[in-house]
From TrEMBL, chain A:
Keywords: ATP-binding, Nucleotide-binding, Transport
Protein's recorded name: ABC transporter domain-containing protein
Keyword Thylakoid: no
Similarity remark: Belongs to the ABC transporter superfamily.
Organism field: Sphingobacterium thermophilum
Signal peptide interval: none
Highest taxon of source: Bacteria
Domain ABC transporter: 6-237
Length: 326, 257
C-alpha cells in the first residue's frame, strides 16, 4: 500500500491564459477505487489525458506504475486501460471484431485475441450480441463493450471517464457493480471521473472533489461528511406531520438549548443547525410544543449537502470573478 | 514481372510480408492497423462505388480502343504502331477519352475519396481517443490511413492493366514487348504516386478540419486549384482539361486570358 500506482505531483495544464488543472497532487494506491468528482469543465478529463500521456502537462509530472506518462506514454498505455466518455466503436464491425482489433494492437495473436474477446464478452454480459454489429448497440451496451475492451489488454489500472453518463439508473447500478466486482477479483486499480456523486459514492473507496482545476477535498465519503460537520456544525432534520403554522414558537422553544445556532423551515421540515449534537433535546422541546414529529434524521448531512457545499463555493467564486471583470 | 511489381509495392508498405497469414508472433500495431483499414475500405459502399466507376471507365475506354485497334496498328506513319498494348491504353476514337486520361482525373477523386475522412471520422465516432489510448505511435495511425488505401489502389491499377494486357493477348495473339512492360509499369507507378499525393493531401486536411462536410467542399476547391496548377506543368497530358478549354472557364476560379 505504500507504493502509489498513480502519483501526480504539481500537475498543471494551461490552455492559453486559462488554467485547466492547477497544481494537482494525487496518490492512488494499488487496488483502490478512486472517484474523481467535479462539475463539468472542472479539468477531470484533462487530468486523465495527462495521466495517459495524451496531452503534455504545462508543468509537473504524472507517474503511472513507475513510468513518467509524458516521457514514456507507450509503457503507460500498455498498463492502463482507458474508457473515454463518449466511447465509440467501428459501426460496421461486430463486437468480437472490435475487441480483437484492440487486442491485436496490444500484441495478442489472432487466435488468442478471439478467445479472450469471447471470454470478456461473457464477463460484461454481451455474449448474446457478440456477432452483431456495434452500430446497432445501445449506449449502455457500448459502455459494457468499452469495459471489455479496456480489460482485454489485461491492465493494472483502469481509468473510466464519466462511465455512467447516458445510462439509465438500473444500468448504472449494474455497470458500477460490475466494475467493483472486477476490481476486487482482478485487483485492479480504478480511477473513475464523474459528476454524479450519488452513483459513484457506493463503489468508491476514496473520492476527490475537483473544482476549477483544484482538488478541494479528498478522502473517503464518510470523512468528507465529518469534515463538513466540523466546519458547518451539526445538522438535524425533523419532519412534522403537517405544515408548520407558527415557526416562531418552535424557534423560541429551541433557542434555550445549549449550542443551538439556527433553524430553517421548509413547509413541514425543520433543519436545526447546532455546534454539537442536540437531536434529543430538540425533539423533546418540540414534543412539549405539541409538534407531531414523523421522522428525525440525525447527522443530516447528505451527499447533496457535501456536493452543493463544495460546488457552490466554487460557483460563488466564479460569480465574484465575473463581477470583478465587470 | 507485373506480379513482381505488385509484390515490390506490397513489401514496401508491409515489411512483415503477407498481411493475412496467421503468425505465431504477435502482430505489430502497424500491420494490424493496415489490415483493419483495408478491410473496412473494401467493405464500405464508398469503395464499391469508386471501384465500379473505375471499372466502367476502364471497360468503356478499352472497348473503344479495341474497336479502333486495327487502324491504329496499320498506321504506317506512327513510329510507335508496333506497341499494341500501349496503343490499347492510349488510343481512342475521340468519343470518350482514353484510359490514361480518364485515370488523370479519377486519381485525385480516388485519393480524396479514400482519405478525406480518415482522421476526423474516427474523431467524430469516438474511436480516435480509444485508439490513441492503445500502445501505438500516433504516426503509425496516420501512416496506416495512408498506406492502406494506397495498397488497395496499387492492387487495383495493377490488376486493371494486367486485365487489359490479358484481354489483348487473347484477342490479338501478339507477344508483349519488353519495352511495353517497362512503360506500362512506369505508368502504373506514376499513377500510384499521383493518387498518393491527393491521398496525403486529403489526410492532412482531415487532420486539420474536424467536420467532414467542411473538408469536402474545401478539398474540392483545393482539388480544382491544384489540379489546375498541375495541368500547367504537363499541358499535353491534359487534353480534355486543358487550361484554355471551355470546361475550365466555366469554373470561374482562375480566369486565363
Amino acid at each position: 500500500m505504500n507504493n502509489p500506482i498513480i502519483e501526480l505531483t504539481d500537475l498543471t495544464k494551461c490552455y492559453g491564459k486559462k488554467t485547466a488543472v492547477d497544481r494537482l497532487n494525487l496518490k492512488i494506491y494499488s487496488g483502490e477505487i478512486f472517484g474523481l468528482l467535479g462539475p463539468n469543465g472542472a479539468g477531470k478529463t484533462t487530468s486523465i489525458l495527462m495521466m495517459l500521456g495524451l496531452t503534455e502537462p504545462t508543468s509537473g509530472t504524472a507517474t503511472i506504475c513507475g513510468y513518467n506518462a509524458t516521457r514514456n506514454p507507450l509503457q503507460v498505455k500498455k498498463l492502463v486501460g482507458y474508457l473515454p466518455d463518449n466511447v465509440g466503436f467501428y459501426p460496421d464491425m461486430t463486437a468480437v471484431e472490435n475487441l480483437c482489433f484492440i487486442a491485436q494492437l496490444n500484441g495478442l495473436a489472432e487466435e488468442e485475441a478471439k478467445k479472450s474477446a469471447k471470454e470478456l464478452l461473457e464477463v460484461v454480459g454481451l455474449e448474446a450480441n457478440s456477432d452483431s454489429k456495434t452500430g446497432t448497440f445501445s449506449r449502455g451496451m457500448k459502455q459494457r463493450l468499452g469495459l471489455a475492451e479496456v480489460l482485454i489488454k489485461k491492465p493494472k489500472v483502469i481509468i473510466l471517464d464519466e462511465p455512467t453518463l447516458g445510462i439509465d439508473p438500473s444500468g448504472v447500478n449494474e455497470f458500477l457493480e460490475l466494475i467493483q466486482r472486477l476490481s476486487r477479483e482482478q485487483k485492479l486499480t480504478v480511477l473513475m471521473s464523474s459528476h454524479h456523486l450519488h452513483q459513484v459514492q457506493r463503489v468508491c473507496d476514496r473520492v476527490g472533489i475537483f473544482v476549477d482545476g483544484k482538488m478541494i477535498v479528498e478522502g473517503p465519503i464518510d470523512s468528507l461528511a465529518q469534515k463538513l460537520q466540523m466546519h458547518e456544525g451539526f445538522k438535524t432534520v425533523i419532519q412534522l406531520a403537517s405544515e408548520i403554522e407558527n415557526p416562531t414558537v418552535l424557534e423560541k422553544a429551541l433557542q434555550d438549548i445549549e449550542g443551538y445556532k439556527s433553524l430553517s423551515v421548509k413547509q413541514d421540515t425543520l433543519h436545526v443547525l447546532a455546534s454539537k449534537d442536540i437531536t434529543a433535546e430538540a425533539v423533546r422541546a418540540l414534543v412539549y410544543q405539541n409538534a407531531n414529529i414523523v421522522s428525525v434524521q440525525r447527522n443530516g448531512y447528505s451527499l447533496d449537502d457535501i456536493y452543493s457545499k463544495y460546488f457552490e463555493s466554487s460557483n460563488q467564486r466564479e460569480v465574484k470573478h465575473e463581477r470583478k471583470r465587470k | 514481372m507485373k506480379e513482381n511489381v505488385n509484390n515490390f509495392f506490397k513489401n514496401i508498405f508491409n515489411p512483415d510480408g503477407s498481411s493475412t497469414g496467421k503468425s505465431a508472433f504477435p502482430p505489430t500495431p502497424m500491420k494490424v492497423l493496415i489490415r483493419k483499414e483495408i478491410g473496412s475500405h473494401i467493405r464500405s459502399w464508398r469503395f464499391i462505388i469508386l471501384i465500379a466507376l473505375i471499372v466502367l471507365t476502364f471497360g468503356a475506354s478499352l472497348f473503344v480502343s479495341f474497336s479502333g485497334l486495327r487502324e491504329t496498328i496499320n498506321n504506317a506513319q506512327d513510329p510507335d504502331s508496333a506497341f499494341v498494348y500501349l496503343k490499347l491504353l492510349t488510343t481512342s476514337d475521340n468519343s470518350i477519352p482514353p484510359f490514361h486520361i480518364f485515370l488523370n482525373f479519377l486519381a485525385p477523386l480516388l485519393g480524396i475519396a479514400l482519405g478525406f475522412d480518415a482522421i476526423n471520422s474516427e474523431q467524430n465516432g469516438g474511436t480516435l481517443t480509444r485508439l490513441v489510448a492503445q500502445p501505438l505511435y500516433r504516426d503509425n495511425l496516420i501512416l496506416s490511413k495512408f498506406f492502406a488505401p494506397l495498397i488497395i489502389v496499387s492492387v487495383l491499377f495493377t490488376s486493371l492493366c494486367m486485365l487489359m494486357i490479358g484481354a489483348g493477348i487473347i484477342t490479338t495473339g501478339i507477344n508483349i514487348e519488353w519495352q511495353e512492360v517497362v512503360r506500362i509499369s512506369g505508368f502504373i507507378i506514376i499513377s500510384i504516386i499521383y493518387v498518393a499525393f491527393w491521398l496525403s493531401l486529403s489526410i492532412l486536411l482531415s487532420i486539420v478540419f474536424r467536420s467532414g462536410s467542411h473538408l469536402c467542399t474545401d478539398s474540392d476547391r483545393n482539388m480544382v486549384i491544384l489540379h489546375r496548377i498541375l495541368s500547367y506543368s504537363n499541358q499535353p497530358y491534359h487534353t480534355t482539361f486543358h487550361p484554355k478549354s471551355e470546361l475550365y472557364f466555366g469554373t470561374g476560379i482562375f480566369s486565363v486570358e
